Structure formats: structure tokens, C-alpha cells
Amino acid sequence: MDWLRRIQSLVTDPPPAHIFEVSEAGVAMAHLGPGKSPELAFEPLPPGSIAVSPVKDNVLDADSLAAAFRKLAPPPAARKPRPAALLLPDFAVRVSVFEFDSLPKDPAERTTLIKFRMKKTVPFDLEASRLSFWPQKRSDGKLDVISAAIPLEILARYEAPLRACALHPGIVMPSSLAMLRLVEDGGLTMAVRLENHSLTLLVVQDGVLRLLRCLEIGHADPEGILSDLYPTLVYVADTFGAPPARVVLAGFGASSEPMRALLSQETPASVEIAHSPLGKVLGPFDAGLLGYLYGAGVAN
């Protein structure tokens, strides 16, 4: 997907040596040594260390999070900042996709327009948030703009333990946006990603992200997830004139095959389980990490 390649090219030429994905369960890391395959590691967090939310402090046990980063990437003696990428839980970041006929050329006017559209969809103050957006050009000439925002206070608490380890988070993004690089282009595709207590639904059409929904859920059983997924399947069929041709599942772990079998009975779509070229099924805590590696050309 060209838009994600442009985002990642800001820091991935070459990619940073440290890439982290944070979840309520722990911190997943990939370390890229010179000329070597990525070294993957995972450091669990004590239960309750992180409670993902778009409106409240997520980091409830800062000491445990800091200890996890120190164990995964001990600070060097010289304390020279090292570039890093940080992938955050989807539910902590509000991501929207807006359709435009065109955008103003002036960057300040673009930002004002995006903020105006986004204010109607976020439960926090955009003026006290970090906002990023990326236009995507569709085949019909219109623009679909991906916008992502997170309150500065929430972001600062995630970034602080990296900086304490002499790591500079040059790029920060929601985990599932990084994961999308592992979803092949072509036709109308829905990616369904389970992450702790949230379900992220992403609809891609010919390489353009058309829809992203992140739902907070209180269960992880396939039948319950199907009930959460069904309204979006109906919405996609109504909006795009046809149901998705493909559904790609990620993060379901041991429930991957039961979920695939159940969903295959409810939709004419081809239902697949996402894998990384590293040979790993995308888990609930590393799907974004594996997608980022692939997008950076490390795990092709």
C-alpha cells in the first residue's frame, strides 16, 4: 500500500534497529542487527499494568513498563539516542477515514479541515492531541484521508520509558495500520484483528484503506466476535455494493481455525488466517510488529 510505504519511509531507510509493539499483555520487540534476521522477543507485563483507553491514562504501572523496555533494550553506556518505532494498541488511538473531493494546498488549511471533520468523531480534545493524516488517491479521483489522533498525555506515558532507555520513537502508529502491509492488495478485503479487549476491522479496496473501526469487546469467543463483526459486514455490503471478497483474520491464536470455520459459514468471502513471511501466525501481541518488519523489507 503506497500510503503506508510513504509513512514508513520516513524512518525506515534504513529501518530503526528497535521496533516495539505495546499491548496490555506486554511488550514485543524486534531488534535488527546488521545483515542479520530480526531477533524477536516478548516481555510480559504484570496484569493491570496497562489499561487501553482513548480518554484515560493507559499506563497504570509505569515502573513495570519501564522495566520491560530496559530488559529488552538496555540503555548504552554512552546514552546516545537510538532511533526506534513504537506501535500502540489500536483502541488507544482514534483513527478515521474521511472522503474528500480535494484538499487545500496550504498545509495549515488542510490541518484545520481535518480537525473540523475529526472533532465530530473523537471523545477527547484535539487541541491537546497529536494529529497525523495521510491522503490516499482513489481510482475515481477522490481522496480518502486517514487521520489518527491520540491525547498528548496518553502518548507521553507510552514514550517516556523508551526515552529513559535512550531510545527515540521517531515513528508512532497504531498497531493494525502497520499490520496492513501483510494484507495483500486486490479487490475488497476486510482484515479482522483481535487485540486483548478490542476488535479492529479494516476495509481495503485496491490498496486504499476505506474504513477502520475499533470496537471494545468483553469476550473472545468466535460466536460473540461474529455478532460484533456482522453489522460491519452488512455496512460494507451496503456501502460498496458487494460483501468483501476476502476476510483476513489476525490475532486469534488458538481460536483462528474455529473463527475461520464459523465465518466461512456466514459469508461468501474467502476467509484466511494471516501469516508473516517469517513463518509466524499473526498473534494478538505482535501482528503490527510483524507487519512493520515486512513493510520495511526486513521479513520478505
Ordered list of secondary-structure elements with their pairings:
Elements: H1 2-9, E1 18-22, E2 26-31, E3 39-44, H2 62-72, E4 82-88, E5 94-100, H3 107-118, E6 129-137, E7 143-151, H4 152-164, E8 167-174, H5 175-179, E9 188-195, E10 198-205, E11 208-216, H6 222-240, E12 246-250, H7 256-266, E13 270-273, H8 287-295
What's the number of extended β-strand segments?
A: 13
Q: What structural class do the secondary elements suggest?
A: alpha/beta
Report the C-alpha radius of gyration, rounded.
Answer: 19 Å
Helix content: 25-40%
**What's the number of structural domains?**
3
Q: Major β-sheet, in short?
A: 5 strands, mixed
Order the strands across the largest sheet as they lie in space: 3-2-1-4-8
Mean pLDDT: 90
Order of helices and strands: HEEEHEEHEEHEHEEEHEHEH
Report the principal-axis shape. globular
| CATH fold call of the largest domain | Nucleotidyltransferase, domain 5
* CATH architect. name of the largest domain: 2-Layer Sandwich
Strand content: 25-35%
What does this structure look like?
With 300 residues, this protein is of the alpha/beta class. It has 3 domains: 2-91 and 151-176, 2-Layer Sandwich (Nucleotidyltransferase, domain 5), CATH 3.30.420; 97-147; 185-283, ATPase, nucleotide binding domain (Nucleotidyltransferase, domain 5). It has 8 helices and 13 strands. The chain has helices at residues 2-9, 62-72, 107-118, 152-164, 175-179, 222-240, 256-266, 287-295; strands spanning 18-22, 26-31, 39-44, 82-88, 94-100, 129-137, 143-151, 167-174, 188-195, 198-205, 208-216, 246-250, 270-273. The strands form 3 sheets. The protein has a 5-stranded mixed beta sheet, with helices on both faces. Helix 2 crosses helix 4. The two termini are 15 Å apart. The model has no long low-confidence stretch (mean pLDDT 90).
